[in-house]
Structures are given as C-alpha cells and as structure tokens.
Amino acid sequence: MNLHEYQGKEILNSFGVEIQRGMVATSPEEAVEAAKKLTEETGTGWHVIKAQVHAGGRGKGGGVKLAKSLDEVRDIAGQIIGMDLVTPQTPPEGKRVHQVLIAEDVYYPGDSEPEEYYMSVLLDRAKGKNMIMYSTEGGMDIEAVAEKTPHLIFTEEVDPAVGLLPFQARRVAFNLGLSGQAFKQMTKFVSALYKAYISSDASLFEINPVLKTSDDRVIAVDSKVTLDDNALYRHKDYAAMRDIREENPIEVEAKAVGLNYVDLDGNVGCMVNGAGLAMATMDLIKQAGGEPANFLDVGGTADAERVETAFNIILKDPNVKAILVNIFGGIVRCDRVAQGIVDAYKNMGSIDVPIIVRLQGTNADIAKELIDNSGLDVQSAVAFQEAADKVQAVLA
Ligand code: GDP
Ligand code: MN
C-alpha cells in the first residue's frame, strides 16, 4: 500500500525524524486556516502548497508552489485542488487532486546554501537485506542521477537481524560531506528513518529531498512510502490511511468481494484456481501470442456465484478480447465448476468475448461434456497445449 506524502511524514515524525511541518486542506478556505495556524507554530509567513497524489515529480507538473501571503495561499490552493495533475509518473490524463498539504517554507529566504540530498531505505530482496541508498544529488530525478553520475549514489547494506549500527549512520553523514552539527543531525536523521522503516513494516521509505539548512537542521521535505500489505493487520492505524481514490478501481472492487485480482496490460482475461496455476496460465497465454489482462485466483470455491463475480470483474477491463478459464478440480469437482460456468454465463445474458475453458482433475470428462453440450460460446480443452492453441485461434 502506498501512502500520501503527508501520511509518510506523520509516520516519520512519530519516530523522531524532523519533517517539514504541514496540514492537509481540501478547500482554499481550509488552506488559509492551515497557513495561519502554521505561522503561529513556526513563525514563517511563507508556505508551500503541495498536491497530495500518489505520484512523484509533482514539482515539475505544477503541483508544488510557493505562496508568500495568505492571498497567494488561497489562490494557489484553488488552482491545485481539483486539477488533473500530470507528471512523468502519472497516466497521461493525470491524477485528480483531492487535497493539498500546506507546509512551512523551510528554504529560508536568503539562505545561500541549502543542500538537497536523496535518501531511501528499501528492501534488497536478492541480498535479503535492507539497503540505505543516498546521494548528494537530491531534489531532482534520482533515475537521471543513477544514469549519468552513478558514482554519486552510495549504498549502505543493513542486516535486518543486526539492525543499523552507529558507525553505519556516521558513514552516511561522512559520505554526504558533512561535519560538526550537521554531521550529528544527519546521523540522528538516518537512525530515526531506519527505525521508522523497520517499525512500520515498510518496503520503501524515500525522502527526496532531505534538506540541510544553513543553520544545520536536517529535514525531510518529501516522503514516498510503501507499506507491506501483508503486515497491515498489525498496524490498524496505518491501514486506515488507505486512500482508495488513488488505487485501481477494478482491484478495489475485486478485493471487496474477496478475489485475488491484479490488473495487467494484456488482452486475455484469466480465471484460475491457485496462485501457482495462475502463474503457469499467464506463461501459457504469452506462449500463445497473447498478453494476460490480469492475474486472478478464484480460490477453492469455484461455484456459479463466484464464477459470475469473477467474470464480471474480468469484463470490467475494456482490453479483454478473450477469457481463459483454467481450473484444476481436486477437492472441487470439475463438473460442479463447469455447471457453475454454464449457470453464470446464462445468468449474465451474454458475454461478448470468446471463452476457453480448461478443466482438469476429478470428473474432467463429465465437465467437458457439460460445456460442449451447453450451446454457449464456450470452448473446452483438456490439455494445456490444446487450451493455448484455442486462445491463439481466437486472437488471430
Ligand atoms: P516532488 O516534485 O513530487 O518530488 O515534490 P517535492 O516535495 O520533492 O517538492 C518538489 C520541490 O519543491 C523540491 O525539490 C523543492 O525544491 C521545492 N520545495 C519543497 N518544499 C519547499 C519549501 O518549503 N520552500 C521552497 N522554496 N521550495 C520547496
Ligand atoms: Mn520529491
């Protein structure tokens, strides 16, 4: 699950990371109220208005703007709230902005040398370790830094069983070229950031930029956070941060009805029982010259109702040109699944795309007969290859 910048900052702050303070607003009036409160707390009359959407590169797309007065706060918030923000990381049509973060301006006017660094903590699955990635070249596109000046990106591997050791945090501060008070602040920053990452069961915490002010404060100005969905059961407060407006609507709907569905870019819809068979089926589709439109594991109970729900979800994707149903009947008998498919099909009236059904396992022969005699636009297959050939034929 991804978080908004302001939510990531809340978590960071709760673990002692110094952040650029701010408040969320959903209207220009709320934005002005937030700015007034922030001025009381921080003393600064300047604020940045930041679009809260799950996408980076907002600055470039006009989603981050500086306001030097309350009138400007109102105007800019009015422009940003409700806009479809287009950045290199959004779909071409952009993402609708529902809320903005009103944040204190931490780039002091006249500060001649604010330094912007890049820092992230992430999981290195291949090494089985956590990794702190950091660079002196913050604020900008880190992918561009990685491409043009890879020697300016440092990494620090952290053994999850040992945790971050003090010398490692010092090495980070040293490699960033810091000394004195800034060095101390940076080691504190790195330790607190790592603690936030571990304690929240995250797979990513990215802070770009980390700002060092001329008076040696080290502040998280931005945050991009991904939490592990499988650990959310032990973080009820973080689970409540989910913003489904930012997520794929078909996936949200599938989740609500208990289906394990992931939307993909292809043209062949899949309905499969078991994650392993689902993976194999996706390979099968590729070999047949198609591209899977989704990953869908219907689980153990493939009865008529569940099959119908799954068909409905798959058909929400306009790119689907054919559906491959690949079910292994072990505990659930193939003839019952076949009956379920026939019933679901009839109940739905008509389905506009061809369906290929492969049922294998207990009573597969009876199931095939049921499908073949149904009179519906459903083709049956028994062998894997046969199913692949039939998918290829309908796509041709
Ligand atoms: P992103 O573009 O989505 O990564 O959004 P960021 O939160 O990183 O903000 C983009 C840029 O806005 C930063 O790199 C800063 O240069 C600038 N910015 C952010 N906060 C402030 C601020 O308090 N004052 C000023 N003057 N600029 C800021
Ligand atoms: Mn950023």
TrEMBL record:
Keyword terms of this UniProt record: ATP-binding, Ligase, Magnesium, Metal-binding, Nucleotide-binding, Tricarboxylic acid cycle
> What does the note under cofactor report?
Binds 1 Mg(2+) ion per subunit.
Annotated GO CC locations:
cytosol; succinate-CoA ligase complex
Positions with a binding annotation for ATP: 50, 57-59, 106, 116
Q: Where does substrate bind?
A: 273, 330-332
Q: Which InterPro entries match?
A: ATP-grasp_succ-CoA_synth-type, ATP_grasp_subdomain_1, Succ-CoA_synthase_bsu_CS, SUCC_ACL_C, Succ_CoA_ligase-like_bsu, Succinyl-CoA_synth-like
Q: Which cofactor does it need?
A: Mg(2+)
Instruction: Show the GO MF annotations.
Output: ATP binding; magnesium ion binding; succinate-CoA ligase (ADP-forming) activity; succinate-CoA ligase (GDP-forming) activity
The metabolic or biological pathway listed in the UniProt record of this protein is: Carbohydrate metabolism; tricarboxylic acid cycle; succinate from succinyl-CoA (ligase route): step 1/1
The record ties this protein, via PROSITE patterns, to: SUCCINYL_COA_LIG_3 (PS01217)
- Which residues participate in Mg(2+) binding? 208, 222
Biological process annotations from GO: succinyl-CoA metabolic process; tricarboxylic acid cycle
ATP-citrate synthase/succinyl-CoA ligase C-terminal domain location, by residue?
271-391
Which Pfam family, any one, appears in the UniProt record? ATP-grasp_2
SUPFAM superfamilies per the UniProt record, alphabetical: Glutathione synthetase ATP-binding domain-like (SSF56059), Succinyl-CoA synthetase domains (SSF52210)
Q: Catalysed reaction(s)?
A: succinate + ATP + CoA = succinyl-CoA + ADP + phosphate; GTP + succinate + CoA = succinyl-CoA + GDP + phosphate
Q: What is its EC number?
A: 6.2.1.5
Chain ranges of the ATP-grasp fold succinyl-CoA synthetase-type domain: 2-210
- Stated family: Belongs to the succinate/malate CoA ligase beta subunit family.
In UniProt terms, what function does this protein have? Succinyl-CoA synthetase functions in the citric acid cycle (TCA), coupling the hydrolysis of succinyl-CoA to the synthesis of either ATP or GTP and thus represents the only step of substrate-level phosphorylation in the TCA. The beta subunit provides nucleotide specificity of the enzyme and binds the substrate succinate, while the binding sites for coenzyme A and phosphate are found in the alpha subunit.
- Please describe the quaternary structure of this protein: Heterotetramer of two alpha and two beta subunits.
Its protein name is Succinate--CoA ligase [ADP-forming] subunit beta
Give the originating organism. Aureitalea marina
